[in-house]
Amino acid sequence: MNRKNSGAEGGIPGRPSPQPPTVDEPTEPREPLPPKPDQSGPATVSPTGQETGADQAAVAQAGPYLTTAQGARLPDTDHSLKAGSRGPVLLQDHHLREKITHFDHERIPERVVHARGAAAHGVFQGYGTAAQITKAAFLGKGVETPVFVRFSTVLGSRGSADTVRDTRGFATKFYTTEGTFDLVGNNIPVFFIQDAIKFPDIIHAGKPQPDREIPQAQSAHDTFWDFVTLHTEATHHTLWNMSDRGIPRSFRMMEGFGVHTFRLVNSAGATTLVKFHWKPKLGVHSMVWEEAQITSGMDPDFHRRDLADAIEAGAYPQWELAVQTFPDTPEQTFEGIDLLDPTNIVPEELAPVQPIGLLTLNANPSNFFAETEQVAFHPGHLVPGIDITDDPLLSGRLFSYLDTQISRLGGPNFAQIPVNRTHAPVNDMLRDGMHQTAVHRGVAPYRPNSLDAGCPFQAGADLGAYVEVPVEVPAAKKVREAPDSFADHFSQPRRFWLSMSPVEREHIIAAYSFELGKCYEQAIKERGLKVLANIDPELCAGVAAALGLRAPGPTEPLASVEPSPALSQLGQTWPLDGRVIGIVADAGCDLDGVRSVRQAVLAAGMVPLVVGPDGGALGGGGEPVAVQRTFATARSIEFDAVLLAGAPGPAADAIGARDAKAGDPAAGRGGESDPRVLLMLSEAYRHGKAIGGWAGADSVLAAAGVPAGAPGVVTGHGEEGTLEEITRLLGSHRVWERFEAA
Ligand code: HDD
């Protein structure tokens, strides 16, 4: 304890700070805790002293001998302590009780929303382009800041499927030198509600129905549609969910949005209103609905796997952080758009999206629970230079996150969990509480004090303190109401609809038809159509036809709005990093072609997966070709394009194939094909994926019902020409011409 020098008192917010006396700080910044033995690398030496060759980072245990949590070595962890080998188990078996008790408490409550997620570590590099509008140090030119990013679905439980139709969370923790900044956003730029007080209502409506707890991770049920059709401020967000944005191809191919308007402040105290955007380098791409549904069954971990695989392969996903900027006027509107209404976007054509830094995700978490599950984001984690606005949705969030984390993470000390620790020095006066792991020193965690020489001191803005922008609060009456400008629920959805290409509109109509078609209540379907009529008659008529109902007319005049071309996902060419090409072959196919195509796919930064009838390798001249997927384990959903290196025959486990093979060694050549290959091709065709084949593949394509010469079906070019054409097609993600509307 240091009681030297009773020294000066701390500063007053907004005024220059007094200089602290030069004494050792009695309450030193808390160093990050050293890792516990079982968090550091495990021993690579066996009890007998031999090198195990185990990878330090990959093994679970820290030493050669198994111990209890108290460090006592254990002679046996497979048998309970009993009175005789056939006798009763004894209560005095401390090891049994410790092991089972810990196991019983391994689970913590899942997040009430966004329970299902996947995350990665990375780095953010500032471009310095925001220096004029914010003093945030991490946005400075070339400044590198470690980050942790968690992507999530909203409605499903922890074990639900990744590819359901839903909004995706996109939460980023920047470990800046000035404290942690969390940008807790979504892949959709608007929200269902304008006021946080309605959050429990929208979530209760969207979650599984409380009587039978179904459906899981779906919005296609009565209570969701009951709420969003009665509560029309949800129309814009719902429309985005029904568009292709609701079923992303990959977390790596999603935009992110801060949703609310934030207030940036520069070192001179000048403020600018901004909306944050994340722009993926790979472009914005989606699944088609049938593909997403099949994926939910075939590979419920599809997005989680895709992110981890890409990072492991070194195909690090990148996004640019960007801002739209607006003058900070008292009205807080831009071109007539209310910036405090989170159901609004500002079209990019009206306010350009200006890049201010680059995010690269380059490392997978080493422990899902410790990092992805225990990470705690909070929109109130702000750094100097970034402030909030009075968006009523944001205000409620500022309360909710800390509150939920206290119960989810078991008390108020979760900031000490490694993934939540700030990288800035901490010198708080928060003490004790559940799961306290810091050993604080001193006797005076209060201020003012004299026992610790008046320390710690309060900093002013000049010493890097977070000082709220002193915005004017207009004199007003205390009311429970929304401003009139929040009452326009249809002009923004109409703009979104008008900005879609014909194929995207076709998908939206199909999505509403599916979701409303899954409702039992006729009144909800009819009310759904009334909402759609206020967006657009074509949309309403398409859905009404699918539901077998009459399309109603609008209840208010349709808004006259300009489309925003930036909202469409079509029409551009994108990089192919990490795209997956399935190459279907058997031992009788053109294996030289398979070898050279594999090399070319790898060289293009994509992933080639050879799909063979059975496991192992395909032989026949030259190096054997390893099979990565079999007809039994592969499905079209795994591939962005499918290639046929000839006319493969059926696998040994195909129904009836054994007999065919036994009788005719050439079974399959030009005739019989494995039904699973035919299914793969017909699905790939329906889902708008590029398909190619050479060396006699045409007969298999014909058997699969893939029309020769159809858009994006490449034959008659040899393996090299086929891949070239497929690569070109993949640049626009899908063969859009295949869809009826096109
Ligand atoms: Fe929220 C989690 C994003 C409105 C209350 N929210 C959560 C996560 C994301 C968002 C990405 C997951 C964070 C993680 O990966 O751990 N939430 C949003 C966005 C919103 C939004 C973009 C609107 C613009 N949220 C919102 C409101 C409330 C909440 C209005 C409550 C009034 N959100 C929560 C929460 C969660 C959460 C209950 C659940 C787990 C957690 O916070 O830590 O507090």
TrEMBL record:
Q: Where is the Catalase core domain?
A: 67-455
Q: Give the record's keywords alphabetically.
A: Heme, Hydrogen peroxide, Iron, Metal-binding, Oxidoreductase, Peroxidase
What does it catalyze?
2 H2O2 = O2 + 2 H2O
Q: What class of enzyme is it?
A: oxidoreductase
- The annotated regions of Polar residues compositional bias extend over 41-53
Cofactor dependence is on: heme
Pfam families (UniProt xref): Catalase, Catalase-rel, Catalase_C
For this chain, one GO molecular function annotation is: catalase activity
Domain of life, source organism: Bacteria
Identify the EC number(s): 1.11.1.6
Record-linked InterPro entries: Catalase, Catalase_AS, Catalase_clade2, Catalase_clade2_helical, Catalase_core, Catalase_haem_BS, Catalase_immune_responsive, Catalase_large_C
State the residue spans of region: Disordered. 1-55
Q: Which family does it belong to?
A: Belongs to the catalase family. HPII subfamily.
Role played: Decomposes hydrogen peroxide into water and oxygen; serves to protect cells from the toxic effects of hydrogen peroxide.
Q: Under what name is this protein listed? A: Catalase
Q: What is the scientific name of the source organism?
A: Streptomyces kurssanovii
